[in-house]
Amino acid sequence: MSLAVVFKSPEGLVLAADSRVTVTATLPVAPLLPPAVPGIIVQPTIQVLPAYFDNATKLLSVANQSHVGFVTYGAGAIGQTEPRTAHSFLPEFESFLSKRHDARIDVNTFAKELGLFFSDQWKDAKMPTSPLPPGIQPMVFLVAGYDKDDAYGKIFEVVIPDRPEPVERQAGTFGIVWGGQSDFLERLLNGFDPSAIALAASTLGLDSTQADLLRQKFQESLGLSIPYQFLPLQDCLEMATFLVSLTSQIQTWMIAIRGVGGHVDVATVTRTDGFSAVSQKRIHSRDDY
């Protein structure tokens, strides 16, 4: 699940991600029957039980490329019998990069190398190939950083294993890119649930042209009016943090998969200072509380 947010503003980039990993287990559950039902054999039903772990690291950076940061969502790990998180691969990825590049590289090249590296890890672990079977999510990365001498940052999306070649997001514009369990975020920013258009189309018998027009009108009329091109970096940071925290908090009252939770890790990337962690969890003892 997870929720990752990247904010592109004139003053810099903000990356934010939650810390939750959701693991589901299927368990047989015997149905409740009267004490004696001769001759009847009832098969147990299957119950899916989610378990949550709130200390995953999804906001990542590389020591020798300090002008770039990235967040991940979707598949929490690669491998079936010995699963590994994206965070656990950082030492190998840093070594991989240092052997291929001895100097600063641009953001697109960094994203390409990231896609190549994690595609190889996915294949080596014998993970399912595209198209992925139901219930298997891709591992997605949002890579954000600055090219040398550029005034504004860039954001690229890499999807493993479906699309390892990076695709630029928010090219030439300012705003927010997000991914993961983002339905509440989209309701707030766009003014409507992402499933509302399909629901309206099926209920009212709308064709694709009418559905697209409805989506356009919803966005124009219901979306929040936010001047992204004028927001200071501090406001972008607070908004990115709020969007992840909002989703985490509201899920505590829901009967549903609570896929977003734990500490919200936040960092900025600017033209002058590069990657800078603003709020990032650390290994600590319970005595530190």
Provide an overview of this structure.
By secondary structure, the chain is an alpha+beta fold. It has a domain of 190 residues: Glutamine Phosphoribosylpyrophosphate, subunit 1, domain 1 (4-Layer Sandwich), CATH 3.60.20. It has six helices and twelve strands. The chain has a five-stranded antiparallel β-sheet with strand order 10-1-2-11-12, covered by helices on one side. A five-stranded antiparallel β-sheet has the order 5-6-7-8-9. It is globular. The chain starts with a strand and ends in a 10-residue tail after the last strand.
Short description:
It contains six helices and twelve strands.
Question: What is the strand and helix layout of this fold?
Answer:
Elements (H helix, E strand, L loop, with lengths): L2 E7 L2 E6 L3 E9 L15 E9 L5 E3 L6 E7 L15 H11 L6 H18 L14 E7 L8 E7 L2 E7 L5 E6 L2 H8 L5 H9 L3 H15 L10 H19 L13 E6 L3 E6 L10
Antiparallel strand pairs: 1-2, 1-10, 2-11, 3-4, 5-6, 6-7, 7-8, 8-9, 11-12
Largest sheet: 5 strands, antiparallel
What is the CATH architecture descriptor of the domain at 3-26 and 47-181 and 254-284?
Answer: 4-Layer Sandwich
Indicate the radius of gyration in whole angstroms. Answer: 22 Å
The SS-based structural class is: alpha+beta
Which homologous superfamily in CATH is the superfamily of the domain at 3-26 and 47-181 and 254-284?
Answer: Aminohydrolase, N-terminal nucleophile (Ntn) domain
Q: What spatial form do the alpha-carbon principal axes imply?
A: globular
Number of strands: 12
